[in-house]
Eukaryotic translation elongation factor 1 alpha 1 (Lynx pardinus), 89 residues
Amino acid sequence: AGCAVLIVAAGVREFSASISKNGQTHEHALLAYTLRVQQLIVGVNQMDCSEPLYCQKIYKEFIKEVGSYVKKIGYNRHTVVFVPVSGWN
């Protein structure tokens, strides 16, 4: 596959669980890289759950955290695209 979309919840508890060593974000990102997916798009879901709503500071922290992990896996951090998403509003 040429591209994969990885959706990660931006809620504090959900994000902490998904980015932990045995979390699904770790597993799915590693699996995508192992399957030679060249382009990774990360959807930052539930931005409407942050305090304050749609907080850019939280979004940037999220990018930093997930970006450093995908870099460790082997992706070029500058080619990974991050997209804020909210399905509620």
The longest helix spans residues 56-73. Residues 3-84 form a domain with the Rossmann fold fold (CATH 3.40.50.300). The mean pLDDT is 82. Helices lie at 12-19, 24-34, 56-73.
